[in-house]
Amino acid sequence: MALFGYAIRNQRLVSPSLPSGFARFALLLGALPVLIYGLAIALASWRPIISLIMFASVPVSYILSSPFREKRSRQVYETMRLQEKTHVDE
Fold first, then answer.
1. Which end of the chain, N or C, is less packed with Cβ atoms under 10 Å?
2. For the segment 45-65, what is each residue's pLDDT rounded down to a tens digit?
């Protein structure tokens, strides 16, 4: 996650045609489970049921958001491909 964050900073290590909004979206998708798990661990001794619900919510959120993530990734890929093709044709 830290490596990807470094790679997308100022778009120095990724394709210039990669939309910065998508890069932030991907970084958020990677960071969110880490934050949820960390919070769940912190809450475990005080509220174990809430902690277990938080642990269970991470895989469920991946399953439920999978079609949305796939659609967004496909759109970005097609946009990048078209931009690179027009850049090469020029």
1. C
2. 999 999 999 999 998 877 877
